[in-house]
Amino acid sequence: MCGGVPVISWPFFADQQTNCRYQCNEWGVGMEIDSNVRRDAVAGLIAELMEGEQGEEMRRKAREWRDKAVEAAKPGGTSHRNFDDLVRDVLLPKN
Predict the structure, then answer these.
(1) pLDDT at 92
(2) What is the rounded distance in angstroms from the CA atom of residue 25 to the CA atom of residue 37?
(3) How many domains does the chain have?
(4) In which region does residue 32 sit, left (phi positive, over 0), alpha (psi from -120 to 50) or beta (all else)?
(5) Which domain holds residue 36?
(6) Where are the beta strands (DSSP E) in the chain?
């Protein structure tokens, strides 16, 4: 998502099911490959993501998420501040 492109997910184990659920259902930036994967089905998903209406919306949302990630990682951004807090609270000696 930090690349600003939608994803095709084929969850198998561990946290992949959770990641797929968020990508496809919550954030709207992905499509899931059916468990009975077929070449024509994968080709259809790729075509939809690259050229279809649903794919256009997913590409727009993926760009929004990319922009949010870039802002969060900049100095003063939320991720940057959280990392600084972690270093200060966990790694640096207490005075």
Answers:
(1) 83
(2) 20
(3) 1
(4) beta
(5) 7-91
(6) 7-9, 30-32
